[in-house]
Structures are given as structure tokens and as C-alpha cells.
Amino acid sequence: MKHIKIKDVAIYHPEYIVDNEFFHQFYQEKGKDVRHFLETMGRKERYVIKDEAENGLTMGIAASKRVLERANMSGKDIDLIVFSTQVPETTFPTNAMFLHDAIGADNQTIVMDSNANCAGMTVAVEQASYYMKANPNVHTALIVGSDYNSLISNEEEEITYANYGDAAAAVILEKTDEDTGFIDAIYFTDSVNRDKILFPPEGLSKAVRGDSENMLIKWLPFDGSIALPPTYEIIETLLTRNQLTAKDIKAYCFSQFALGNILKIQEHFQLEDKQIIYVGDKFGYTGTSSPFIALHEGIASGRIQRGDHVLFWTIGAGYQLVAMLLKY
């Protein structure tokens, strides 16, 4: 039986760092104190694009070239490219098409963009893993997640402007006979908040016609805690049906959207600090790539090693949850 393993992972982020003090002063001038908010979200620093030559596509290309170099591979070795983004540089051709050219991929390489919002890269890895198992001609895949979040963040709303960072992650999936790699995944979808986080804020048709007031994320208040009970349920189900306990998981790579959510999940499952990979204090919230930036950190620090079970969990706007289990 063929298995799908993560052969290697790499990340890219811009050089410019913005720390919390900037946002303290920025919002203080507006008569707002965001110190408690930033503490709850777990923010200290975040990387943001300042160079006009950079964008989500260039970050994705840079991360891809790094992971190919780490894996001692070239673009010709890749059978499938999936570019996950919620801030595409173009809608056609696909960002994956530009990436195909940048890495010199083969003519028979399959290319596509995908968008499941912040859950996107996790969904792309899960979907690609199943596809690779089903297609005997696809042996390798390059999965990229990249969001230029600061481009569309609204200065009036700290939930995006003070919370988000820009970064990309890239992983190479490889077919193997080893007893390792992707194991299982589970979803939970409830469209109750489909109108709470919007971009373009009034839809693409109005934006193109020039009828929108702005082109920034519209974030309306909602109770984010409603996602926690189903989160507990899907993680428990994923563990149970694979004969594992929470203690059997070496590392948890969660969405880095809010430290508060991570701590609640940690408390619910009574996880040790060493099982949680947290990078939101350094990177801010990077959207689709965030669980894989956590994976990269876990591997680089030695906290994740070959043969370890790793559990991913993330959330997409609207909302959709996905939990994924693999053996690294």
C-alpha cells in the first residue's frame, strides 16, 4: 500500500518586522487600547511586506525554491502543484501557472490554485494526499500556502491590521512504501458566519464596477467560541478512529489565529506545553500557511522528528474546521 509522506518543508517571510509597540501607539492615537487584545491573540512581532516588488505570489515562489533545494529536487521532479491562497495575485492564469514557470516544472505537471480561506493549505495537503493515492502517475506534489494579508487589512480594525502577518510555506509530498505520512482527516462545516468576514467586502462584481466603498477585509462581530465544541469533537473523533490518545501526538500544529483558542484546546485535552508548536508571537497570523509554519518550526527545533505523530487543526471563514493526522 502506498503512503503519502511530507518529504520536506520550507518557509519564506519578508524582512520587515512590526512589533506590538507600533500598534499600541497607532491605536492609542485613535483613543483605543489594544494591549489586552494583542496579549489574548498572542502577538509580539509579525513580518509584513514593505517592498512593492513582493506579493503573495513571489513569497510562494521563494518558499517553493527553498523546499526544492532542501529536498535536492528540481521542478521537473514535481507531478502536481497546488497553490493555496485567499489573496491571489491573479485569478487567471492561476498563481500555480506562474510557479510552474518559476521552478521549471514539466509539461505534464498538473497545476491548480485552491482556496479554503485560512484552512486552505491544510485542505490542499489532505486533498492532494488522497489524489496521489488514487492516481498511479502522480508520485510527487508541491503544495504552497501564501497570503499577502497586510495588503487587505483594515487599519480601523485591529483584528486584521494588528493581528496579521505575511508569509508563505511550501511542502513536498512524496509517495512511499514506508509506513508513514498522511493518515486521516475530518471536517466540520457550519455556514452560520458566512456573512461575517468578507473580501471583497461587497463582492467581486461591485468591486470591479467600482461600486464598493473600499477593498479591505470587512470583519463583523461574531462569537468565535462557537467553533470550540465542534473542534473538540472532531479532534477526539480523529484520535479515536485511529486508535490514538491525545498523549500519543508528539506535536500539535494549530491555526495560529489566536493564542487564546490554542490554550483552550490545550486545556480541554490536557496537553503538555511541549506538545504545542506556537509561532504566532513571531509571525503574527499568516492565514493559510500558519499550521505549516508551525510544522517548520517544530522540525527546525527538533521537537518533531521522523516517525512522530503530528495533528493539524485550523479554521476557515464562514466557518469550516479541519483536523488532519499524519506521521512525519
From TrEMBL:
Q: In what residue span(s) does the Beta-ketoacyl-[acyl-carrier-protein] synthase III C-terminal domain sit?
A: 239-328
Task: Please give the organism.
Answer: Metabacillus niabensis
The alphabetical list of record keywords is:
Acyltransferase, Transferase
State the InterPro entries in the record. ACP_syn_III_C, ACP_syn_III_N, Thiolase-like
- Does the UniProt entry include the keyword Acyltransferase? yes
Residues in Beta-ketoacyl-[acyl-carrier-protein] synthase III N-terminal domain copies: 112-190
- The domain of life for this entry's organism is Bacteria
Q: Does the keyword Acyltransferase apply?
A: yes
Its Enzyme Commission number(s) read 2.3.1.180
The beginning of the lineage is: Bacteria, Bacillati, Bacillota, Bacilli, Bacillales
Q: What class of enzyme is it?
A: transferase
Enumerate the Pfam families for this protein. Answer: ACP_syn_III (PF08545), ACP_syn_III_C (PF08541)
Q: Name one GO molecular function term.
A: beta-ketoacyl-acyl-carrier-protein synthase III activity
Name of the protein: 3-oxoacyl-[acyl-carrier-protein] synthase-3
